[in-house]
């Protein structure tokens, strides 16, 4: 989600500002992770710290970009952030249930991995993208299948 912001900062010639602020905040990951681990937190805490700092950077960049480009942060939150959270919530239910119900092992690995691919793809297709993009995806898949069918028959 950070890429459009970086591109926007490039467009208004404010890359230095974005890199200085974003890059400085990303150093917090190292510092906070160190203190978490030193305090006895489990290794997974590093991922939580990374996610938290990434969210902080995202919020700061949203507010910082408003200084250079007039846009609605609320509209961005509704059209991008909300949809991402919705897709994440919907697509995580079945893999989570499988993780809880199946015994650890290769079968669970395959089941959860397959469920992740299917649920994320379905959630993105039905919830995360608009009708125009959905039609584009269908056309692209059909074109790819037709092209491979012609090449395979020749």
Summarize the SSE layout with pairings:
Layout: H1 3-11, H2 15-38, H3 45-65, H4 73-101, H5 106-128, H6 131-153
Helix pairs in contact: 2-3, 4-5
Q: State the helical fraction.
A: over 70%
What oligomeric arrangement do these chains adopt? single chain
The number of distinct helices, counting runs of at least 4 residues, comes to 6
Share in β-strands: under 5%
**Structure class:** mainly alpha
Distance between the amino and carboxyl termini: 42 Å
Short note summarizing the structure:
With 154 residues, this protein is mainly alpha-helical. It folds into 2 domains: 1-71, no CATH class; 72-154, no CATH class. It has 6 helices and no strands.
Task: Walk me through this protein's architecture.
The chain is mostly helical. It has helices at 3-11, 15-38, 45-65, 73-101, 106-128, 131-153. It has six helices and no strands. It is flat. It starts with a helix and ends with a helix. The model has no long low-confidence stretch (mean pLDDT 88).
């Amino acid at each position: 989600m950070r890429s459009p912001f970086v591109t926007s900062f490039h467009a208004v010639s404010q890359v230095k500002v974005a890199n200085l602020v974003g890059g400085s905040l990303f150093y917090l990951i190292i510092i906070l992770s160190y203190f978490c681990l030193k305090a006895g937190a489990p290794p997974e805490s590093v991922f939580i710290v990374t996610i938290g700092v990434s969210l902080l950077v995202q919020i700061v960049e949203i507010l910082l970009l408003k200084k250079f480009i007039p846009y609605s942060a609320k509209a961005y939150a509704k059209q991008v952030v909300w949809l991402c959270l919705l897709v994440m919530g919907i697509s995580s239910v079945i893999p989570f249930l499988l993780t809880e119900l199946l015994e650890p092992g290769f079968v669970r690995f395959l089941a959860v991995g397959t469920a992740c691919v299917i649920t994320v793809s379905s959630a993105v297709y039905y919830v995360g993208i608009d009708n125009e993009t959905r039609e584009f995806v269908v056309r692209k898949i059909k074109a790819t299948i037709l092209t491979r069918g012609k090449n395979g028959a020749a």
